[in-house]
Recover the amino acids of this structure.
């Protein structure tokens, strides 16, 4: 009796693993939570599968974690938004080549009451200085993501020494865009967010967009194939097919076609 | 008619038993031969239960030696019944089958013995009943049915009727008699002197961890050899 | 309060319409956690019984460690399993990472100590009651352990249910080793986490209610089965 139970258990255990052995065309793409939460992948990936037959499995993490995952060889493709980190990724030999794909922009979100008086401004750096001087609550992602990296760059370019000026007003949540927005919403704080996640975000409370349109808020996405020289198991041809599709006219058109409430979120710029 | 041979005689030589760390039995010299009904008597804490368990191999001596027949290890062919029956969560018949399986008896032979055993104790009708829902008296009889099916060479009994009502106790004494008549050696402890008088061939009297005397039953109750035994019998009568 | 009533309505709607996404996610949750529980029971029950009945050096230390392992943080288990199954790690060539298989591995590791520690206590209590009689009948350590496992089966069923409860409720381990990939490794708890982080709190709460309802249903079924078995077999 014991032996039969053991065999049954073993087979039952194997069943969930079998899909891995099945000959399904799939790749693993390490991407960011902002791209996932904007809903872009939910819209795009069925089109990719129709056109190429490839099932794309997206693991959505912060940019830092996504690149780390790609370095370990746990992904076939990396699709993130931190140009400096991406170029380093390729320079260090982990990626084959970086292709620009699209951009969206960051927006500065804040409470309608706007204690720092920055509404309607077109200069992100000036707005941040005002927030710091007013010591108004500001919520940061603090998670090595592309958004976080951009935020830190803006503080630096604005001449604000965060380390010195950090106080109770600067809240570092160490979490993704969604939870950070949740926190900002509940404490009526200012927060830097990508437009995509903001448009898809449902828990807005008193928050609204206060500053947008500054060219500096431009957020570039790049895609890279993980280097098969470093990780031989990487699905190089399928991964490259996916990248080729993204930068092709068809892919670029599909990206431009994604809208929330009639508004386009991502602007294809692969050929610029 | 015992199935196993040569677990007897049991010889103890200068046995010291200290199951909880402190010695309960000291300097026990004893030979237990086949065929008799030996009853252990003594005040509380004298070590009767411990001696029973040493004889059955459940407790190892911390000093001295014990030999069963020619073997130094506990033989098969012994059984024990406790004051409270220990039964498994299964039917009455299955409890007996479990014991038989451990003894290497299976299949049709086991079926036959189970039926015979249940008949002997009068529990045939309850064969399929879950053992745990039987009454206290029925459970103890089931424990005896188990022994009956095993046909042991020696049966140890630790106050087997102490938890039973008089009718059930009478029934159990009858069964013990039947088991003995089939050839099983009986070793028993009890607090019930009347029962001891009824059932014993010889009395082994323990006091403070030592065997004070070993006397045929008739003689013990009228003319005990040791002062401790005499005091014990006096105390009980008063 | 609004969120809660909105969520109740949403939950009811999701269930009655058998929302396809929801069905897939629930099915995967059950598959992963039931498989992990089966394996954890298969390992944990004999381990618990062996430690309860056996005598060997270091046994008290082992018991302490086993009990402590019940408090293993799921996210730590997830991280360790991730590092093991990562391509850069020792077991990377199995390609298990970001598949349901990895989630099953992580949950099995998480709940085996629970089942082992609790069953050890139950069997040990039973052993103190049965030891003399079973030894008298000639049962060796292995046979005694097996007998006790069967005899305490009703209490052990609750232990296994506790393990299942822990598995289906956890989110830290499966998030890390599964990657929360839509349609592949997304389970109820990771979906709830995702919807929460997207700010869709009513939907997240609705899914939470569905999860609780399913666990309640499973426990009711288990209870009824136990009662029927008890009546039939004692």
């Amino acid at each position: 009796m014991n032996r039969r139970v053991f065999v049954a258990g073993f087979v039952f255990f194997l069943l969930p693993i079998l899909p891995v052995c099945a000959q399904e065309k799939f790749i693993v793409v390490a991407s960011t939570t902002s791209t996932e939460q904007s809903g872009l992948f939910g819209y795009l990936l069925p089109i990719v599968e129709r056109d190429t037959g490839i099932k794309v499995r997206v693991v959505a993490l912060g940019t830092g974690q996504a690149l780390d995952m790609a370095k370990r060889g746990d992904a076939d493709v990396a699709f993130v938004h931190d140009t400096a980190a991406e170029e380093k990724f390729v320079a260090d030999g982990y990626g084959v080549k970086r292709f620009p794909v699209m951009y969206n922009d960051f927006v500065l979100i804040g409470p309608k009451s706007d204690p720092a008086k920055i509404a309607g401004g077109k200069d992100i750096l000036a707005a941040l200085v005002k927030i710091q001087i007013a010591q108004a609550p500001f919520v940061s992602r603090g998670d090595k993501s592309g958004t976080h990296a951009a935020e830190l760059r803006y503080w630096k370019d604005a001449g604000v020494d965060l380390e010195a000026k950090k106080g109770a007003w600067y809240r570092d949540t160490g979490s993704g865009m969604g939870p950070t927005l949740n926190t900002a919403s509940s404490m009526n704080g200012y927060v830097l967010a990508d437009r995509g996640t903001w448009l898809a975000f449902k828990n807005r409370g008193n928050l609204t967009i206060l500053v947008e349109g500054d060219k500096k808020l431009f957020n570039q996405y790049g895609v890279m194939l993980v280097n098969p020289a470093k990780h031989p198991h990487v699905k190089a041809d399928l991964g490259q097919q996916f990248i080729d599709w993204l930068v092709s006219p068809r892919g670029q058109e599909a990206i431009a076609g994604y809208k929330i409430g009639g508004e386009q979120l991502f602007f294809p710029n692969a050929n610029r | 008619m015992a199935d196993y041979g040569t677990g007897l005689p049991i010889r103890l030589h200068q046995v010291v038993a200290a199951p909880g760390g402190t010695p309960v039995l000291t300097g026990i010299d004893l030979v237990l031969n086949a065929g008799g009904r030996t009853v252990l008597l003594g005040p509380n804490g004298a070590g009767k239960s411990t001696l029973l368990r040493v004889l059955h191999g459940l407790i190892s001596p911390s000093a001295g030696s014990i030999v069963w027949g020619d073997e130094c290890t506990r033989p098969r062919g012994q059984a024990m019944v406790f004051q409270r029956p220990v039964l498994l969560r299964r039917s009455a018949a299955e409890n007996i089958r479990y014991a038989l399986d451990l003894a290497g008896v299976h299949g049709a032979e086991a079926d036959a013995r189970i039926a015979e055993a249940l008949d002997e104790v009068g529990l045939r009708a309850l064969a399929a009943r879950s053992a745990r829902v039987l009454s206290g008296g029925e459970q103890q009889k089931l424990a005896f049915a188990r022994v009956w099916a095993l046909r042991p060479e020696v049966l140890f009994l630790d106050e087997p009727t102490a938890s039973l009502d008089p009718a059930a106790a009478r029934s159990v004494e009858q069964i013990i008699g039947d088991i003995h008549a089939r050839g099983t050696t009986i070793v028993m402890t009890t607090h019930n002197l009347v029962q001891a008088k009824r059932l014993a061939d010889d009395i082994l009297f323990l006091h403070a961890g030592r065997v004070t005397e070993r006397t045929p039953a008739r003689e013990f109750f009228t003319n005990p050899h040791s002062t401790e035994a005499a005091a014990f019998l006096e105390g009980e009568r008063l | 309060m609004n969120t809660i009533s909105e969520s109740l309505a949403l939950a009811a709607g999701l269930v009655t319409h058998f929302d396809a996404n929801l069905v897939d996610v629930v099915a995967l949750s059950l598959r992963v956690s039931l498989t992990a529980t089966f394996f954890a029971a298969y390992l944990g029950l004999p381990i618990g019984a062996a430690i309860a009945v056996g005598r060997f050096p270091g046994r008290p230390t082992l018991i302490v460690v086993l009990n402590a392992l019940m408090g293993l943080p799921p996210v730590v288990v997830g991280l360790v399993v991730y590092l093991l199954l990562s391509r850069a790690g020792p077991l990377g060539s199995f390609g298990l990472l970001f598949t349901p298989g990895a989630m099953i591995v992580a949950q099995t590791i998480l709940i085996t100590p629970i089942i082992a520690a609790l069953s050890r206590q139950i069997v040990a209590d039973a052993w103190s009651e049965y030891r003399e009689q079973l030894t008298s009948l000639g049962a060796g350590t292995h046979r005694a352990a097996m007998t006790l496992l069967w005899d305490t089966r009703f209490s052990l069923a609750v232990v296994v249910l506790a393990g299942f409860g822990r598995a289906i409720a956890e989110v830290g381990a499966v998030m890390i080793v599964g990657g929360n990939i839509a349609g592949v490794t997304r389970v109820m708890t990771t979906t709830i986490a995702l919807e929460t982080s997207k700010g869709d709190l009513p939907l997240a709460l609705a899914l939470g209610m569905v999860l609780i309802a399913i666990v309640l249903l499973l426990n009711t079924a288990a209870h009824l089965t136990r009662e029927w078995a008890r009546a039939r077999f004692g």
